Amino acid sequence: MKNTFFLLLLLGIIFSANAQQKPVFQRLRYEDDFTYLKADSIKTLYERIKYIPLGKNDKYYASIGGEARLQYTYTVNNKWGDEADDDGYLLSRYLFHANVQLGVFRTFFELQSSLANGKTDPSPVDENQLDIHQAFLDIDFIKEENEQLTLRSGRQEMMYGSQRLIAVREGPNSRLAFDAVKLFYKKNNWQSDAFFTHPIANKQGTFNDSFNENAKFWGSYTVIHKVPFIQNIDLYYLGLWKSRSVFDDAIGEENRQSIGTRIWKNKGTWKYDFEGVYQFGNINQKTISGWTLSSFACYTFENIKYTPEIGLKTEIISGDKSSGDAHLQTFNPLYPRGAYFGLVALIGPSNLIDVHPSINFSLSEKWTLGIDYDIFWRQTLSDGIYAPNMQLLYSGKDTTERFIGSQLISNVNYDMNNHLGFTLETGWFNAGSFLKEVGSGKDYFYAALTAQFKF
Fold first, then answer.
1. DSSP string, 102-140
2. How many angstroms separate the CA atoms of 150 and 282, rounded?
3. Judging by DSSP bridges, how do beta strands 147-156 and 128-144 pair with one another?
């Protein structure tokens, strides 16, 4: 482990020294743009792999890149004392991609390897030795400065909005992709996407993440910018079919529709994010009626040392009202970011009331410090609590306790340069009366050191 960390450090120094212009890496790496390099007559070795001309036409070029992430985690009282502790485990993730642009056609190919050392019985999300993570073809019907119409087909990552419902699952060791067909149109201040997908079900092994016939996911997502008074607005419809889903009071084939909107502003001293979603459908002859309301607002004190940013997030997420009836009110977060409430995600966004104050400091250009505190209650007493992937953690049928517990997290982040960053995160979960009644109810602690290198 020590040698690998030193190797990442060395690579970060070398790549940074070889870049004349600081690269900007996007969260979705297929959105990286290095076309600015085509105007340079002399390039460093690193810049030569980021823009490779494929002829005299500047619309024909290729690029390669990737990342390596190492994450050492130490935990105490796994699942609040109901699972055996690991002495500490190392998760490693490696991604390598190639992008080829041939006029109106574009291909993107990416491999992913996720390994878990020292972790007892790792899941496929922790360990998936090697597989094709992305492989898609773009056809640009329109591609102008202020307008674009593109058809994308193949295995691809998707991420929308605040990542409450559709995310790449960056926190866990294996990122999420979809076998999908997507059509997206951009013009001036708005973009609208329509897609039909089969989400990938990761399997441990090599090149065995096959086409998933047990789940379908489809929808449309529209984003409008520069809206008077509210800045930005998202409008969306999402559909989900799964051959088998498990809730506290329902098991069977699930067909669920979601409609929602989000109003947000992410620039300036005041930032905010308000979102509401309603879900309907059926599961095993039960009708579905779920919902969530979330709000986040923060203010940055730009004229105070370390520019502190104070924020408050609140969420209320529906759970099932009554066991044994013909209705299910449990909200399904679909495919959310994995680290929903902290890096080691203990609880998922279903059947919850959450109050979440936070404060962040910019200690310097390279150092940041964040502290946040979460308080959790069950939204309904008839439903249990779930993991982010909707695995039922504890049933709620045999207890009337509502308070789940509170969680304190701190993280220190050091961005050495645009290529290499380090994060130390610690978390303590104080188990509440619900956890003490349904399980061992011990307080949970974790510490995680992450090193991430991108090129």
1. ETTEEEEEEEEEEEEES-SS--TTT-EEEEEEEEEEEEE
2. 34
3. antiparallel
State the Cα–Cα distance between residues 81 and 440, nearest whole angstrom. Answer: 6
Name beta bridge partners: 216: 241
Instruction: State phi, psi for 87 to the nearest 5 degrees.
Output: -70, -15
331 in Cβ contact with 349 (< 8 Å): yes
Q: Are 63 and 52 in contact (CB under 8 A)?
A: yes
Q: Give the bridge partners for 91, in sequence order.
A: 71, 116
Question: What would the DSSP string read from start to end of 379-399?
Answer: S-SSS-EE-TT--EEE--TT-
Report the distance separating Cα 134 and Cα 361, nearest Å. Answer: 36
Residues facing residue 172 across a β-bridge: none
SS3 content of the chain, % helix, strand, coil (to 5): 10, 55, 35
If the chain, 455 residues long, is cut into consecutive pieces of 10 residues, what is the mean pLDDT of each piece?
61 62 92 89 86 92 97 95 88 98 97 95 94 98 95 98 96 96 97 98 95 97 94 98 97 98 96 98 96 98 96 98 96 93 91 98 97 98 96 95 98 96 97 97 97 97
Strands 286-300 and 327-328: parallel
Q: Which two structure tokens, joined as six digits, stand for 93?
A: 């993730």
Task: Give the pLDDT of residue 84.
Answer: 85
User: For 345-365, b where at least 16 C-beta lie within 10 A, e where not — what string?
Assistant: bbbbbbbbbbebebebbeeee
> d(Cα 109, Cα 136) in Å, to the nearest integer?
7
Report the candidate in 172, 123, 89 with the shortest Cα–Cα distance to residue 344.
172
Q: CB–CB of 158/181 below 8 Å?
A: no
**Residue carrying structure tokens 């109901």:** 82
By the 10 Å C-beta count (0-12 exposed, 13-18 middle, 19+ buried), 392 is classed as: middle
DSSP SS3 for 174: coil
Distance, in Å, from the CA atom of 348 to the CA atom of 161, rounded to the nearest integer, reads 18
Six-digit token string for 67: 């990342």
Q: Name the DSSP class of 284.
A: T
Cα(368)–Cα(412) distance, rounded to whole angstroms? 6
pTM: 0.93
Cα–Cα distance measured from residue 373 to residue 427, given in angstroms and rounded to the nearest whole number: 10
Please give the C-alpha separations between residue 34 and each of 224, 372, 417, in angstroms, as whole numbers.
26, 36, 18
Please give the C-alpha separations between residue 222 and each of 32, 164, 171, 198, 233, in angstroms, as whole numbers.
22, 16, 25, 21, 8
Residue 52 gets which letter from DSSP?
Answer: E
Q: How far apart are CA 425 and CA 392, in angstroms?
A: 26
Phi, psi dihedral angles at 434 (to 5 degrees): -65, -50
26/24 Cα distance (integer angstroms): 7
Place of tokens 């080829």: 100
